[in-house]
Amino acid sequence: MTGPLALCCLLLSAHTLxxxxxxxxxxxxxxxxxxxxxTVTLKCNFRTDGNLREIVWFRVSSxxxxxxxxxxxxxxxxxxxxTSYSHMEDNRRQEDLVYQxxxxxxxxxxxxxxxxxxHVGIYDRSSTDKVTLASxxxxxxxxxxxxxxxxxxxxxxxxxxRYEAQNFTLVxxxxxxxPAPMVYFKRDGELIDVVPTAHFFSSVEDQSKGPGLEKSWxxxxxxxxxxxxxxxxxLDDTKLQKSLSLLxxxxxxxxxxxxxxxxxxxxxxxxxxxxPELTTEVIxxxxxxxxxxxxxxxxxxxxxxxHRQQSAGDGTMEVRAMLTWxxxxxxxxxxxxxxxxxxxxxxxxxxxxxxLAAPRGPKLSMSPDKAKVGDTVRITVQGFQLGPxxxxxxxxxxxxxxxxxxxxxxxxxxxxxxELILERVPAELNGSMFRCTAQNPLGSTDTHTRLIVxxxxxxxxxxxxxxxxxxAVSHCSITLTSMLLLLSSTCKLT
Length: 494
What we know:
Elements: H1 4-21, E1 24-28, E2 34-35, E3 40-48, E4 51-65, E5 68-78, E6 97-105, E7 114-123, E8 131-140, E9 142-143, E10 148-153, E11 166-177, E12 182-187, E13 190-191, E14 195-196, H2 237-250, H3 262-273, E15 288-291, E16 304-311, E17 317-327, H4 329-332, E18 336-342, E19 350-355, E20 363-367, E21 371-372, E22 377-383, E23 398-403, E24 414-416, E25 419-422, E26 433-440, E27 443-450, E28 453-454, H5 457-493
């Protein structure tokens, strides 16, 4: 067949193919990370020249079943039972139809995190019995801001050393965040330039967690801090010169990571404690002594930074950032350290701060106020005389109780704890002096209190009663003996 008729048949055949071909494209609009508790709308757009059959939304579970990932149907639209869409259109129409299906998730939670799929089916233009399917997917990322942030001291409580520098570690603990936040430290409001290392192991590490612990090391280069900025602090020049002279005699400086032998420290402690004790009569109750270190820091400290994170059971992360340096009590006392956290779910950084403070001026209380013989006496540390910037003594101090010129009531030489309990005090303790030593890595202080024991009227009355009873019994015994002798003499005369 040739001529116009053949050309007409060819055009008709091409038009029929275009009617029966049809197409369907599906896409889901991307979403940024969503903060837990927000309301989210998932949008599925699809373009087709066919007639809509159905729309199905699935949430793909992370749990794997026998046939693969488990899918949970969360929304279904069936065009056959919805009058708002008509699939009885003229098959000869060739215009594209653009649809959008939305699913609203109010107050998303952690369990809403994951993959979502939008499945669309259309009727083929050639037959209403044939359905063409297409799908699109999107991953919903639910982020969680940190639940808590705190700063603690490693190895707390810890003693004070008068003879050498000590390593000191601050630990910033951030929990409940997803993803893991970025953590950094500040000193007196200025960012600290740190030295990251994977080889420095802080004593705060928990070896019981085993090799499954995830570790990541990062460097925080957010600024620079120098101890030269603290030269305006009030320092005692006399103590400074004395410290330098002692260092020249020893011929060495204490450095970070260098610990002297235990014998040196123990020998110094024994030499200090071997000084003759003063008698209780010449120690007033208000004496408070403060010990200062016999060394100084020769250069700016190096701050070592260690960072690790571990997955929690609820899908969040626990982060521990550790800052370690060689402590200088004369410079670090009353220094403000803060740990700050940046996280995409936070509009501003989250922070926790502590002020390093040495214990000074312990305030002691005694209960009862007027102790009597046989009472139980409690001597307790109620607090300290704090500086203008400190709200508490940090790190936590160690409290040691001793009795001047003797042992404690229970026979021990010393007792540790915030409270000293003396049960059933005897009269012999009247006038005894008790010493309370409070110390942390920044310093040590002593204070004394005198115990005054009064007579107990009840015990005195009871003693007098027993004396009277003994006298009455003795009197009765003498009278009875006299009567027996008189009776015996009478019988002999008879």
